[in-house]
Prior knowledge:
Elements lengths: L7 H7 L10 H11 L12 H7 L4 H20 L6 H18 L4 H12 L3 E6 L2 E6 L8 E5 L7 E13 L1 H4 L5 E3 L17 E2 L4 E13 L5 H11 L6 H30 L4 H15 L4 H18 L2 E3 L4 H7 L2 E4 L1 H5 L5 E7 L4 E4 L6 H12 L4 E4 L5 E4 L2 H12 L4 H7 L2 E8 L4 E8 L2 E9 L7 E3 L2 H12 L4 E10 L8 H4 L3 E10 L6 H10 L3 E5 L4 H11 L7 E4 H5 L3 H7 L3 E5 L3 H13 L4 E5 L5 H6 L2 E5 L5 H6 L2 E3 L4 H43 L6 H11 L1 H7 L25 H27 L2 H22 L6 H4 L5 H19 L1 H6 L7 H11 L1 H11 L8
Helix pairs in contact: 3-5, 4-5, 4-9, 4-10, 6-8, 9-10, 10-26, 10-27, 11-26, 11-28, 12-26, 14-15, 19-26, 26-28, 26-29, 26-30, 27-30, 28-32, 29-30, 29-34, 30-32, 30-34, 30-35
Amino acid sequence: MKTHETPLEQLAQGLHTDLKTGLPQAQAESLLKDVGPNQLQGKKKKSMLQRFFEQFKDAMIIILLIAAAISFVLALQGHDAKEFFEPALILLIVVLNAIMGVMQESKAEKALDALKSMSAPHARVRRDGKEQIIDAAQLVPGDVILVEAGDFVPADARLIESANLKAEESALTGESVPVEKHARAVVAEGAPIGDRLNMLYSGCSITYGRGSALVTETGMNTEMGKIAMLLSQEDDNQTPLQQKLAKLGRMLGIMAIVICAVIFVMGLIWQMPILEIFMTAVSLAVSAIPEGLPAIVTIVLSIGVTRMAKRNAIIRNLPAVETLGSASVICSDKTGTLTQNRMTLVKAFDAQNDHMEQISGSNSEDIRELLKYATLCSDGSIAVDEKGTVQHLGDPTETCIVLAAQDNGMTKKALNEAYPREAELPFDSDRKLMTVVCKMNDRHVVITKGAFDSFVGRVTSGDMERAKSLVDQLGSEALRVLAVGYKWIDQVPEDPKFDELESDLTLMGLVCMIDPPRPEVRVAVEECRRAGIRPVMITGDHVVTASAIAKDLGIQQPGDASITGAELAKISDDELDKAVKTTAVYARVSPEDKIRIVKAWQRQGAVVSMTGDGVNDAPALKAADIGCAMGITGTDVSKGAADMILTDDNFATIVAAVKEGRGIYDNIKKAVAFLLSTNIGEVITVFVAMLLWHQTPLLSMQLLWINLITDSFPAIALGMEQVEAEVMDRGPKPKDEGLFAHGLGIRIALQGVLFAVLTLVGFQLGQHFTGHIDGARTMAFMVLSLCQLVHAFNMRSDHSLKDIGIFTNKNLNLAVLGSLALMVVVLFVPPVAMVFGLTLLPWYLYAIGLGLSLVPLIVIELLKAVKIIRVKQ
């Protein structure tokens, strides 16, 4: 049963209720047990313990746990307390990583909690013929509720009676102006929510008038409940970075297992002791896994989050930073995102002198007179607080008129005192007119304001044809037009009638208003297009208004189409997949439509960003690759579902966030490449040494120290590198582009080979000059560590260091100095060196090690000079 189409009496019969007296109390209590409370339900929350253990599903973590277990067993067999240091260190790393992961999860729960908080806590209801106030959770279908201006609507309901009733539904439909509601309105079959004028919806608010309504749906069956259901059903998507790191983890895990198996078989063939084979296998597993990678990526993202917060973009989900930088489509809500969500009077037409004028603070006398009359025929008002902020009180179509008059030196208070109101006919949605009678210069003037179409047949003086053509033209420009008429009367009737006052009018003029675009949005849209990003408008507003705004902002260009929610419902997903590429505006859409549009783009391989501020945006914000909510005008629901909140509600902030996102992703790639080059160098070093000399040149504890201490600080500093200037001059990164695209994987592998060669040379030199394995391992450890510290400067940019300045990243300078200081402790403090299996070397070996470590810097700079390594375009 479609509640907005079914005759009211038939609806009441179906719900077994009386429209005048409401439900009997006993029947309501019985129904409550059957249908449940009028509340929103969410998914069962995971416990902290469940979240903690979910962190151990990562392939890299599993390999480390296996390595720790083997190391622990070997330590038990060795009966040496020092040998427990290694498995303890590995377990500490794993636990810290899991704790950091748990701290990031909360998005879906917060979205549902915000939805619940929006539900009205109390409701005025009529039961057994008596009015009473009850907990809104106790409402059931069939209840008769009473609403008035300022009330939240506690449940979906069909109007029984209405008097000048208006409802604010922008959070649900995207419509910026309160909707006129009428109990007797006839609603077309299949009408979207915004056109159902005989319905009230849960979570929306009453801005004007009063009414009574029959509750038709409660709890999760309301339109708000359906949105909550969409949120609970919509799985959290992994961002591209998460997917790539997970794939990398699996790949490294498989590689570690294969290499360990090969070494184990080879050890058996060479008849090596089983204990030694296991120790070597653990060393290889540790060398293959970049233990610090998850933590370092998180830290680099956190640094980016801090930067973005300073530019008015708050990130709620760390990996989303990278996704925003990859965004290829931005689906934006219109109201409050692209526009200011505040009606503004922009033009006025003086019909008596055929004169159109832009509204300013110094309009002509004729236009000022028009504004004076329109203000006298308005109930809305404005107030200015101590900070000078203008507050609009009442219907925004009236308050913008009042503000324009005030800007021209005519306050509403002064006008009302000078020309007191003597009678009035309130606005109603049938007439679409409001009329007042004011005393003016000892005479009585009737002033009528309202929809231009309603003036037809009521005006006897004025060029209506000329005015009609203007109204059509202005409507195509997304302007809302009201007409103002007047006449003089000899005396004020005691019982004013519509036909008596609203006839024989003189058309005074037209006032034109708009929810204006944000002035910075045009520039932001141009920036998006330059960066290869497609802006798309998705709104609950009318298609003509939406298209006009989109064309003005540059979102809709020649050849781009507009489509309505009704048209969208008639096409299949396959047809939509083709249509999205040429459609710039989607109007009168539902929450489900928004998700369809987002997913259609995603099926095209696009990384989709969705911006919005209303409850109706929340499911699509969550379904998108990254959701951006407005911080000032945004509802708690949209903020809870979003990955990023724009604290200044400024669309242009998205462009800055995209730039930061791209820069952060570049920095993460630098950090990942820096860390993996070490791991590859370590794997090759251990593997080749086993093949050639049947011994490992680096112990697992030494490898852990390099991976976690020597490398980690420079890797974090690389994440703090400034965003490069050309980052917005290239198109967005394709969704399926690998982490190692553009030859990065080959570079990492070759760099790893270079480090391995240098480390093996150092190992052999140490063996030759010291004559024992500890000396050889100390030399290998020093060479590999120093190579990495020097190589960190190579990774700063594809530009030569002479172009960007060798020491311009102060954070990297400090990180390298810090790592060097810790290295000195490990190499030269005997108790520490002994724990790590290191020993003191002759002075000349330190000099040779330093010389070997400079080789990567020289090689990479030469490759940059001959353009083998070049800046991406």
